[in-house]
């Protein structure tokens, strides 16, 4: 195993990112083989348990209420519905269910209690459970851990510098605070970002500096390519090339040798050959299912056919970390604290976000 380093500089990371491609691939594949089985890929199913109507203004997101997009919102799903979908995901080879809710932050109350019940239910299906619910407090992280949560996803999205050009309703610091709160429980951390949002290469490196400096580093790092959705502030941004994705995956693999690098949004725009190169460069996790929250994703059968062709095997659940024990709600020592945490709201103006908001007002 390689030892994780926490003091990478932006310059060092850029030097890796910009290496001649064959050299970069060789180095990344070597690190990958040293730390992981190169023929095993973890498969997660992403489930949108509460869609749309989000008060935040993330410039890439069709679920933000302030933009006019085609998203059909829905209230929090029933536990029985989630269980049915988890069983389907398990039957098609997924080892993890990741539940996403379009919330700014988690609020104690019946909805959070319902999510805790979903976590217990999926854990009992012997699947890894992940949640992405927005900002959470230490107490909420501990309650999720007790319910049997395996991972919490909270992406840094981009570098601290570029973050201000993407989101105005919360600060980069809030992201780090939530990750710190998760670390105070025994839940693993999933945190990565999106490339192709108009950021500079320095911002991609800056995001990796922030992720690598976390100690421990996240167990899972999703690398997303922007899927530009009509109505969002980023609707006109051209898709990035596959080479940028390959370079980003390879660089992430080199600087975070032990983490699972997750090839996330944007796979529908990638050829099988492109994805194969990403796997060679160190990606060892994907999201399965025809939707990634609200944006398209390859069909699970297509993915399984690709696995067969490439000789890849889906990773069994709890290979890396053992199955968390579930404490029933009735046995819990933890109480809802009803806190009103002071997450920040910088509120600066981002021109393209404002334009998209004004456009939505005219259409709606
Ligand atoms: S990314 Fe999450 S927090 Fe941001 S607008 Fe979308 S649902 Fe809300």
Layout of SSEs?
Blueprint: H1 10-17, H2 21-35, E1 40-50, H3 79-91, E2 96-101, H4 110-123, E3 128-132, H5 138-147, E4 151-153, H6 160-163, H7 172-183, E5 188-190, E6 193-195, H8 201-213, E7 220-225, H9 242-255, E8 260-263, H10 272-280, E9 283-288, E10 291-292, E11 295-296, H11 300-310, E12 313-314, H12 351-363
Helix pairs in contact: 1-8, 2-9, 3-4, 5-7, 9-10
Bound molecules: iron/sulfur cluster.
At the fold tier of CATH, the topology name is TIM Barrel
- Could you estimate the helical fraction of the residues in percent? 25-40%
Which ligands, by name, code or SMILES, are bound?
iron/sulfur cluster
The CATH architecture term is Alpha-Beta Barrel
Question: For the record, what CATH class applies?
Answer: Alpha Beta
Quick one: biggest sheet?
10 strands, parallel
Q: How many domains in all?
A: 1
Shape: globular
| Number of helical stretches of at least 4 residues | 12
Rounded to the nearest angstrom, the distance between the terminal CA atoms is 55 Å
Classified in CATH, the superfamily is Aldolase class I
Family: Belongs to the radical SAM superfamily. Biotin synthase family.
Catalytic activity: (4R,5S)-dethiobiotin + (sulfur carrier)-SH + 2 reduced [2Fe-2S]-[ferredoxin] + 2 S-adenosyl-L-methionine = (sulfur carrier)-H + biotin + 2 5'-deoxyadenosine + 2 L-methionine + 2 oxidized [2Fe-2S]-[ferredoxin]
Pfam families: BATS, Radical_SAM
GO molecular function: 2 iron, 2 sulfur cluster binding; 4 iron, 4 sulfur cluster binding; biotin synthase activity; iron ion binding
């Amino acid at each position: 195993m390689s030892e994780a380093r926490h003091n990478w500089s932006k310059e060092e990371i850029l030097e890796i990112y910009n290496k001649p491609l064959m050299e970069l691939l060789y180095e990344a594949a070597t690190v990958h083989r040293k730390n992981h089985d190169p023929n095993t890929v973890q498969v997660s199913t992403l489930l949108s348990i509460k869609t749309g109507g989000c008060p935040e203004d993330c410039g890439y997101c069709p679920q933000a209420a302030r933009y006019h997009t085609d998203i059909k919102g829905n209230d929090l799903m029933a536990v029985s519905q989630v269980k049915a979908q988890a069983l389907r995901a398990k039957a098609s080879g997924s080892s993890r269910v990741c539940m996403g809710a379009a919330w700014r932050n988690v609020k104690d109350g019946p909805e959070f209690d319902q999510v805790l019940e979903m976590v217990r239910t999926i854990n009992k299906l012997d699947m890894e459970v992940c949640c992405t619910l927005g900002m959470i407090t230490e107490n909420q992280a501990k309650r999720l851990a007790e319910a049997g949560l395996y991972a919490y996803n909270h992406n840094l999205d981009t570098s601290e510098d570029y973050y201000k050009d993407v989101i105005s309703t919360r600060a980069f610091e809030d992201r780090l605070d939530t990750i710190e709160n998760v670390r105070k429980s025994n839940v693993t951390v999933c945190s990565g970002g999106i490339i192709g949002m108009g950021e500079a290469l320095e911002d991609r490196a800056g995001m990796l500096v922030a992720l690598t400096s976390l100690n421990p580093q996240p167990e899972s790092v999703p690398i997303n390519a922007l899927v530009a959705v009509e109505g969002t502030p980023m609707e006109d941004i051209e898709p990035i090339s596959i080479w940028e994705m390959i370079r980003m995956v390879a660089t992430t693999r080199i600087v975070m040798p032990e983490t699972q690098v997750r090839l996330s949004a944007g796979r529908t725009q990638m050829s099988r050959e492109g994805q194969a190169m990403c796997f060679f460069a160190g990606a060892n996790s994907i999201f399965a299912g025809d939707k990634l929250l609200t944006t398209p994703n390859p069909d699970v059968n297509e993915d399984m056919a690709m696995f067969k062709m490439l000789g890849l095997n889906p990773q069994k659940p709890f290979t890396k970390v053992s199955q968390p024990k579930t404490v029933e709600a009735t046995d819990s020592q933890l109480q809802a604290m009803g806190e009103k945490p002071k997450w920040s709201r910088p509120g600066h103006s981002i021109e393209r976000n404002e334009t998209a908001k004004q456009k939505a007002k005219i259409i709606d």
